[in-house]
Every structure is written in structure tokens, then in C-alpha cells.
Amino acid sequence: MSDDLEDLYRETIMDHARTPHHFGLRDGAAAESHQLNPTCGDEVTVRVHLNDAGDRIEALSWEGHGCAISQASASLLSDLVDELEPADLRSRVDEFREMMRSRGTIEGDEERLGDAVVLQGASRYIARVKCAMLSWVAVEDALAKLPQAA
């Protein structure tokens, strides 16, 4: 990875950590999950909001605290979910997990993962993988709690 690209990734992560998108829990969620990384103390609560028909994700709201990677990851994830079907989001969580477990050998698909691909550099550091995965695990758990129609 070039130094310029690495700097861009670092800048994107820091921007999302300083000014997170969709931060703040909204009422009216279809499902919620709270996750804690006991290794470092990062924690996050996510709420999945469905559209009126209940077949697409309208939004993801979240709150949490922790390192820049965990906060940026939640912010980047929250940008990705708009109007996805729950099954598609589950698939993207799996793709993100595969990228994060690759130790840098698998590049994320920007079309599927959006700007969250900037976190692929963290996959080279085991301690950082848990930080990056925290909100994605929370969303996965929340999706499992959705009513069966979703």
C-alpha cells in the first residue's frame, strides 16, 4: 500500500472517529444489540431501524465509546446500511469479517463495503480486528433479533 493511500485511510478513520455519522440512539428500533470488547473496554450499542414495510433497513443508530478504530468502524457501517435488505447486510457483515480476518491479504470490495474498506489495514493487527469488528458483530446480533419477516 502506498504511503499516500495509507495516509488517506488514516485520515478517513480519524474523521469518522472525531465526527461519527448516525451517532445517538433513536427510538423506534426493530432490534438492538450491545457489545463489549473486554480486551480493551470498547463498547457499542446499535439499533436497526426498518422501513414501514419492514423489509429494508431505513437506518442504523448507535452509541458507544472506545478507540478511534471502533468508533470509525461504527460510523462507516452506519453509512452503509441505508435501504439494504437485512439479508444483504448480513452478507456484507460476512464480507467485512472475511476481510478483517485476512491479515491484509484480502482487499475489501468498495462497492459492497463502501468506505469501510479503509479498515482493511487494521486486519494486519489482531488486537485491532476486534475493535473494527465490534459494531459489525452488534449489527449481526441485532439482525438475528429482527422479526422473522425481515
UniProtKB/TrEMBL annotation:
It comes from Gryllotalpicola reticulitermitis. Residues 9-131 form the NIF system FeS cluster assembly NifU N-terminal domain. This is Fe-S cluster assembly sulfur transfer protein SufU.
